[in-house]
Design brief:
With 90 residues, the chain is mainly alpha-helical. Helix content is 44%, strand content 7%. It has a two-stranded antiparallel sheet. The longest helix is centred in the last third of the chain and has 14 residues. The protein binds zinc ion.
């Protein structure tokens, strides 16, 4: 399978092969983020879990899902911004 250039790690790497069930966003994630970095976000004990706990997000709420999406985009460097992801583990 062709490699993609991952924005998060800034390397050419293997694309995500999982089905993410993210609708429109899925194609964008798969174009910009490699499997390894995705695992850092969504894998067991990953950053996504940390964000949900930190913000006490109830994913039944639309606003909570929007917050999570913003955090994801920042963490995975999907947007061309200077914003640095705040790592709450430190
Ligand atoms: Zn990567």
């Amino acid at each position: 399978m062709a490699q993609i250039h991952c924005r998060k790690c800034d390397k050419d790497s293997d694309p995500i092969t999982d089905n993410l069930f993210m609708g429109k966003l899925e194609a964008e994630v798969k174009e910009k983020v490699c499997q390894t970095c995705w695992n850092e976000w969504a894998g067991p004990g990953g950053t996504k879990t940390m964000v949900i706990n930190e913000y006490q997000l109830n994913l039944g709420d639309e606003s909570a899902r929007a917050t999570l999406k913003t955090q994801m985009r920042t963490f995975l460097k999907m947007d061309d911004t200077e914003t640095e992801f705040k790592d709450y583990r430190h």
